[in-house]
Structures are given as C-alpha cells and as structure tokens.
Amino acid sequence: MADPKLDPRLTPARPDLAAKHLEGQVSAPRFVEGEVFEVTTGVAAVRREPFSGAMLETEALKGERVTIYDRTDEGWAWGQLASDGYVGWLPDITLYRPQAEPTHKVTALRTFAFHGPSIKLPPAETLSLGARLAIVRQDDNFAVTQEGWHVPRWHVAALDVVESDFVAVAERFVGTPYLWGGRSSLGIDCSGLVQTALVACGIAAPRDSDMQEAALGVSVPISEQTRLQRGDLLFWKGHVAIARDADSIVHANAYHMATAIEPMRDAIARIAASGSVLTTIKRLG
After folding, report:
1. Which helix (H) or strand (E) holds 195?
2. In terms of Cα–Cα distance, which of 154, 105, 157 is closest to 130?
3. How far is CA 176 from CA 93, 127, 183, 231, in A?
4. Is the pLDDT of residue 260 over 90?
C-alpha cells in the first residue's frame, strides 16, 4: 500500500513495480534500481500512458536527465525527471546514455542547432529556452556541441548564468501557443511558464500549479486593499498567473490559447464568471 502522502506525479511507483529507493514505503512485487539517461531531442513528451495519444503530463528538454525504471516493446520508457521529479512515459528513441555533463544552456526563446558552421545548412534540431548542452568549443559564430551540432554562440550561456527578472522571461513567451503539459517555447501551459521563467533565474520550482501554490513564496491577503507587486503569483484551482505590476498579469491560458498579457481585474472577473475564484496570492522573497 502506498503512503497517501506520496504524490503519484512525483513517485516512481506502480502496482507492478517501483523504484528501489521506495522499498519499505510502497508495496510492489518488484523494485528496480533504474538507469540514468539523457534527453537527446529538443523536446520530449512525458505522457501519462505509453502511447502517443495519451495525455501530455509535461515535457523534458534536451540535456535533461531521466532515471528509467521500465521499458515496453513498443518503444516507451517509464521514469522520473531529475529536474523536477515528474514521473511519466517518454519515447525511448529520445533517450541515450549520458556522454558528457552539460556545460551550457539555451538562453534564447528558441534557436536552431545546425549540422555544421553555416546557417544555410538544414537544422539538426530546434532547441528551446532552458535546453542543456555539452559545448566542446566555440568560434566566432557558433558553439559546438558534443554531437557536432553548431548553435549560434549568442543563443547559449554557461549553466551558472542566470536572468535577473523572471517576469521579463515570462513576457518573452507572449504569443507562444498554449499547450496543456507544454514546457517549451513551441507550446507552454500556465505552470510551465512559471517554472521555466523561475528556473531561468536560478530558482527551482515544482511543475504543476497546485505544487507551486503550496511551495512558492508567502501568502498575501486577497482584498480590495491588496496591491500586487511585480512577480506576485496569482492562483486559481488549476491555474496560475504572474503579476507584471499592480494592474496586469502575464499567463499562458486556454482563453487566449497563448501566453498573453491581460488587465488583472479583467482576468479575475472573466475567470470568476467561468466558475473559478482567485484562491491565493503568493509573494516570492
């Protein structure tokens, strides 16, 4: 029997098997040590079930590590992301054994990796903000990865380089299509936007909005007298938005089907009219 306190989204345990480190905490007929792999494609889907039509739970970006506990003959791998602990099924073809530790990350909203030192060559991959790369050398125009990919040098930075304003990072996603479970500049959801923006500033954040509501910042009273500050997080059941200032928010949302900037009071009224009231305002330290 699983401990009811263990969140299934973050717990690599199923009725038929579980991670070895959970032995004694959950019941399973088989416990597995797991093997660490690296995501080698620009974006890899993490799904609830092992088929392409299953719900997208989240996404893993190039260079992320994943501990894999199970595989299917149909090409799916079940495991847990090292970055935020999320558990799910990934396409096995996107995973390889790590060759080198990442040294750099993508700092542009998105960029291309080319097969050689020319932007006229066909791209090898599309990379999103936050993708992690092992760079072996740099020249005037390109950073060269361990795979031999050539990425525009000004689109990457060392891993220890962080942004100073996570709201500004989120604002760069304005116009990005809304995608449930999305975590890249090709498609993103509300909590993915918050997580991605915070991580770009060196602030670890959980994946889903309810996790963020519980873990991030301190609560601010909800009242007519409350004046929002830049960076405050506004939570509804199943949704989160970021305050740009006292009067406006930026959020990835299904109403606009994109990341959008919206007057704060208009958004609160519109969401309330759909049956969901503002539950929490959290202020980051």
Report:
1. helix 190-200
2. 105
3. 27, 15, 11, 20
4. yes
Phi-psi region of 147 (alpha: psi -120 to 50; beta: other; left: phi over 0): alpha
156: tokens are 């990457």
pTM above 0.90, yes or no: yes
Length of the chain: 285
Name the more confident of 225 and 38: 38
The pLDDT of residue 226 is above 90: no
Mean per-residue pLDDT, 256-261: 98
CB 26 within 8 A of CB 2: yes
Which two tokens mark 180?
């449930």
CB neighbour list of residue 67: distance below 8 Å, 6 or more residues apart: 12, 19, 34, 35, 36, 37, 79, 80, 82
* 266 neighbors 248 (Cβ within 8 angstroms): no
User: Among 190, 191, 187, which residue's Cα sits nearest to residue 110?
Assistant: 187
133 closest CA partner among 160, 158, 108: 158
Let me know how many helices (H) and strands (E) the chain has, helices first. Answer: 4, 25
